[in-house]
């Protein structure tokens, strides 16, 4: 990590991904969500809203919440142009990006929070730690998510993974860790206690049958995640 660019603080952050419109965003803000993430330009085309709608939503939310662009793009120029066009505060790279691409994005947009997703399959932390070490100098945080070996999906699977891998990454202290992958109101407190992440991310785990965010599920998730994160950070004495 460059000494002249300290990482942005993340301790205790709750991020919700997959926002459909302003009404849903207002629900999430009212419940105390810190970061709102919009997955766009996905390999399977399952975006929750159009890019034009995303641009309007981010503009309406400026200064009220941290706005995260989640994308699978892997070209540095395309990534920076997309971030500029959307007007985001954070850029979350979910594709198979090279360390050169990540470094190029960092150099080009030092003001952006930069997160790289680390999809997890299996129980061996070694490959995850190796990739994290190669990327750590350029990122503000890592997001751990579940890799679906059957479909190749690298996120929004609704499935958990071996939290021991996440804990190994947290213990390595390479960068703050945002825990994702199959979290919901029933398991988030246990997950946070087990992993001790800086933050958590949820997508499908707070949705109802219609695919939209369910107010009661959001309320329970935020309350349980917040309590667990605060306990972990008190024990750790600050930012993990």
Describe it.
By secondary structure, the protein is of the alpha/beta class. The protein contains 8 helices and 8 strands. Strands 1-2-3-4-5-6-7-8 form an 8-stranded parallel β-barrel, surrounded by 7 helices.
Q: How do you describe this structure in short?
A:
The chain contains eight helices and eight strands, in the order E-H-E-H-E-H-E-H-E-H-E-H-E-H-E-H. By secondary structure, it is α/β, with parallel strands linked by helices.
Topology (elements, then pairings):
Blueprint: E1 13-17, H1 22-30, E2 35-40, H2 51-61, E3 66-71, H3 76-86, E4 90-93, H4 99-108, E5 113-120, H5 126-135, E6 141-146, H6 163-172, E7 177-179, H7 188-195, E8 199-202, H8 215-236
Number of helices: 8
Helicity range: 25-40%
What order do the SSEs take from the amino end to the carboxyl end, as H and E? EHEHEHEHEHEHEHEH
Radius of gyration from the CA trace?
16 Å
What keyword list fits this structure?
240 residues, alpha/beta
């Amino acid at each position: 990590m460059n000494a002249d660019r300290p990482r942005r603080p993340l301790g205790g952050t709750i991020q919700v991904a997959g926002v459909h419109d302003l009404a849903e965003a207002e629900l999430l803000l009212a419940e105390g969500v810190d970061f709102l993430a919009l997955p766009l330009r996905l390999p399977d085309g399952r975006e929750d809203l159009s890019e034009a709608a995303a641009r309007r939503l981010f503009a309406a939310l400026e200064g009220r919440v941290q706005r995260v662009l989640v994308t699978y793009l892997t070209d540095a120029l395309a990534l920076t142009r997309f971030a500029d066009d959307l007007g985001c505060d954070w850029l979350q790279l979910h594709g198979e990006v090279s360390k050169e691409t990540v470094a190029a994005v960092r150099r080009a947009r030092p003001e952006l929070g930069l997160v790289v997703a680390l999809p997890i399959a299996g129980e061996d932390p070694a490959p995850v730690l190796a990739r994290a070490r190669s990327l750590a100098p350029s990122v503000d945080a890592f997001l751990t998510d579940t890799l679906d070996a059957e479909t190749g999906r690298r996120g929004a699977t609704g499935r958990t993974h071996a939290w021991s891998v996440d804990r190994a990454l947290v213990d390595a202290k390479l960068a703050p860790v945002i825990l994702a992958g199959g979290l919901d109101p029933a398991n988030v407190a246990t997950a946070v206690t087990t992993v001790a992440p800086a933050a958590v991310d949820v997508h499908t785990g707070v949705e109802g049958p219609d695919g939209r965010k369910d107010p009661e599920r959001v309320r329970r998730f935020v309350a349980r995640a917040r309590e667990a994160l605060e306990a972990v950070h008190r024990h750790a004495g600050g930012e993990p």
